[in-house]
Amino acid sequence: MTRDRSLDIGVVGVAGWFPGRRDVDGLWSAVCRAERLITTHTREALLAAGVPADLVDDPDYVPAGGYLPDADRFAHTLFRITPRDAEVMDPQHRLMLEAAWAGLEDAASGFGRDAPVTSVFTSASGSGYLRAMLTRGPLDPARLDQALHGTEPDFIASLIAYKLGLTGAAIAVQTACSSGLVAVHLAVQALLNGECDQAVVVAAGIGYPQGGHLYLPGGVLSRTGVCRPFDAAADGVVPGAGVACVVLRRLADSLGDGPPPHGVIVASAVNNDGAARAGYFAPSPEGQESVIRAAYATAGIDATQTGYLETHGTGTRIGDPIEWSAASAALSGLDAAPGTVAVGALKANIGHLDAAAGIAGLIKALRVVREATVPPVAGFQRLNPLLQTDGSPLYVPDAPKAWGGPGPRRAGVSSFGIGGTNAHVIVEEAPAPSRPRHPSAGPRLLALSAMDARSLHGAARRLSDHLNTTPVAIEDVAYTLARGRAELPVRMVAVADDPIGAAATLSAEADLAGERSPGYAPSPLVFLFPGQGAQRPGMALTFAEALPGYRAALEGCIEAFAEPLAGRLRRALFDPSSCADDMRDTGLAQPALFATEYALARTIVDDLGLVPTAVAGHSLGEVTAACIAGMLDVATAAAFVTARAEAMRDCAPGGMLWLECDEQTALALAEQAALPLELAAVNGSAMCVMAGPAGAVAELRQAIDGKVRSGILRTSHAFHTTMMEPAVRALETALAPGDLLPSRMAFASGFTGTLLPAGARLPAGALVEQIRRPVLFAGALGSLAEHFGAVTAIEVGPGSALTTMAQYSGIAAIPLDDNRGGAALGPLGAIGTLWVAGHPVRLAGLVGQGRAVHLPGYHFAGDRFLTPELAAPVGPDGRRPKPSTDKGSEGETVAEASALAAPHTVGAETLDAASLVRDLWSSLLGPDNYPGTADFFDRGGDSMLVTHLARRIKATTGVTLPLRGLLAARTLDGHIALVTEALNRQGE
Question: What are the CA-CA distances from residue 242 to residues 76, 207, 352 (Å)?
């Protein structure tokens, strides 16, 4: 019978840092090889880490433990935490922030406005970091307050919620060794109760300093420094260090739009031994058996499908037999057959992670059921004779084995805390994905970002390696990066149509990551729309393949045209093999260009969120620009373009010649040759077009051969000359007086060569009159630069002619359809370039029908942090000297107060306010060369640090500044101005 899965919870994200392994995949590989990731430290390393010399030299000190490398590194800029705050934070809190971020990235969920309501459940071991600070001497009140907030377990859940923008409950869970798994149970209950739609559960167990342990006879810690669960030689546990995270969603939700779950939590249970044990620190077989039975009762299943149990597994003489007995009794009573449940004990590999041990064991059990592989217990040689095996379902695997038998595969995870709080979780393999695949051909944009170039380089390398070794669809990679990652300021993109090509591009881009700079303030965006001459058969295909919403937008525009023209447009726009001569027909070419450009602009604005500051068009493109600017509705524009094309087509034929010279030279050349040619366009200071009868055009080109670079344009008429007079007369009533509405944005007019501001109207009849007037496109471009300064232009249509003109005029321009050869960008590359520069591209509009998958996430390439109270060098006796604890009037140490006051106490009239405020910023936020525009809060400041800033300003100058003023001023220049003004008032 099929089990009701309505209460199942999907584990959609996992992350962790473990002894000797910086990710979950590395841990699983080590577990399968039965590696012991325990470090034996040298005396020098222990002293350098801060372990007191008298402890290191104690004969009972065991210099072994599960050591977490780089536990002092922290990517503080990612979380907008100042270096000063990072120094005082417990390494557990730092790494829990990173693990929560990594877990959400693995779940492809949790960032942005569309994130589900997410709760946070955290557990951490007691802060050895805080204790080490306090043993060096008392801290001043402000420093102590800062230290408590950065080290106490109460605060990390809410800090994660704040820094990651998570709006569900934020709850700290502390039940000693079982804390992490108890937090998982509470998260499951919150999801089932509808209190949240997603839960992040993260726990850490990192002692400070990392080292070994003091062996105490009769205690739980190993004398030999080796943890041997269920082995005859077991003599206790070895401490480890690590952080682990899982992200949970209701299974029905996780099968919708997220990546495939790592596994499913079928049920969980928590209890306490109460008084039914030999002492407070002693375990109870009754309590452990009861919690396992309770979990199975909650699930409404027996244990016949359970093939694995991840035990608490401490390797202690008392704990192992009690746990074995309790689990055997519980599972036997739930119909598990003898010898069918393999036990696992992660502590044999990495030591005891304390508060994080339960989540680490859960992650391992999820891999067991997912991979259908039962790993051995590391170092196991001979079963502890105190373990009762007769009829027991349990056995200890000593080598990897494949999981046999029918599914579904199920496993249990146990975690027991000192004090008697027990937790048990039942997990099951995830169901196979049922969503239909919609593979799509064509290139995809892969977008990566980070807070700094070093992290971006590492992320690109990791993703490149993953794509080279892991089968995955390119559209799923693009989908995941677009929808499941935060958008950070330092960026790169890769455009590829298969994973191997993407890996190569990412590898190449990674080498350039050091040259990346943040795209904080992109220049204003301008849309440029080309005119006739850019068209080609099938020109819509390029955009339809790259932009998922383009076909619908184009069809909506085509429907504005009457039949049979609409049918001709569909064929010509999507069939590259259609007759090129058809597209040279003005009657078809102009409607085709308008439809292509209008749909492309609408897709960029509506789907990608890129709204231009200004628009400009060349000839026909000016009609499209007017439509996008809101001057014309699409139906009116389509009717006008149709009439315009027919009227121009009916004029006498002619020709057009481009010349690489200024307009005066071009006119002089025509005059010298006595040819009836007119100036048709001024596209740049040395870019113009002459037009007139085709014979005269050919004659002029022959006459100037070798003098001026030139070329005959592929047109059938002499547009923008007096030869278009009949068309102008035919179109006199094509637009009614009320058809041209005020513009919603700036409009650079090729008719006048000037900029019309938002709210202005085009002159009456301008779109008709421009047919016989020269296009003053160079003037339009110049007006953009004159009004806005530096802008970024994108050519919204086929070809790149306007891009060349804009670049010639000194404007940064990007074509969406690059036909200039070389490393062509294409639509995706062009949009990606804008995103890299900081433009607010809505990446989700580029990814179409992909689905989320698990991918490598952020590369946490942080700096090392150690609070100054612990940073003094180790003396010959293995001790660090204590700092001075003399207090100044405001509670700072005398040395700190003097350092702040000395440069500024000459007198109020000579005090340098700028230097004072810069020094105070450096003291509170960390040393840096802050620009005047630096924002106090963007650099990690908060309301508490503002109060410290105000206090120190008063202590140094005697000036009391209102907090409201400091909060409103925000920037360095703003704070300097406040202090300067206050000092001036003080001196009056």
Answer: 19, 9, 9
Q: How far apart are CA 676 and CA 691, in angstroms?
A: 9
CA neighbor of 726 nearest in space, from 789, 653, 805, 779: 653
Yes or no: domain 894-987 corresponds to CATH 1.10.1200.10: yes
What's the rounded Cα separation, in Å, for the pair 65 and 532?
A: 74
pLDDT tens readout for residues 648-663? 999 999 999 999 999 9
**Is 619 noted as a catalytic residue in this protein?**
yes
Task: Kindly state the DSSP code that residue 873 receives in the 8-state scheme.
Answer: P
Active site residue 904: no
Q: Say which of 93, 262, 352, 424 is annotated catalytic.
A: 352
Topology agreement, domain 444-515 and domain 525-652+719-819? no
Q: What is the pLDDT of residues 175-193, one digit of tens each?
A: 999 999 999 999 999 999 9
The domain defined by 444-515 folds into Alpha-Beta Plaits (3.30.70)
Q: Which of 619, 710, 783, 800 is catalytic?
A: 619
Cβ neighbours of 319 (radius 10 Å)? 22
CA angle, 576 then 582 then 587, to 5°? 125
Identified catalytic residue from 41, 93, 125, 177? 177
Catalytic choice (93, 149, 312, 975):
312
For 354-411, the pLDDT digits (tens) are: 999 999 999 999 999 999 999 999 999 999 999 988 999 999 999 999 998 787 999 9
**Containing H/E element for 118?**
strand 118-124
Annotated domain spans of the chain: 10-428, 444-515, 525-652+719-819, 654-715, 894-987
Q: Nearest to residue 459, comparing CAs of 811, 111, 75?
A: 75
Q: What is the pLDDT of residue 451?
A: 93
Both structure tokens of 107? 């779940």
Considering the four listed CATH numbers 3.40.350.10, 3.10.290.10, 3.30.420.10, 3.40.47.10, the one that applies to the domain covering 10-428 is 3.40.47.10
For 561, phi then psi, to 5°, come to -95, 150
CA distances from 669 to 683, 702, 773 (A): 18, 12, 20
Pair 428, 10: CB distance under 8 Å: no
Domain boundaries 654-715, corresponding CATH code: 3.30.70.250
Instruction: Tell me: cis bond preceding 564? Omega within 30 of 0 counts.
Output: yes
Global confidence as pTM: 0.88
Query: Could you tell me the fold of the domain covering 525-652+719-819?
Result: Malonyl-Coenzyme A Acyl Carrier Protein; domain 2 (3.40.366)
| SS3 state at 503 | helix
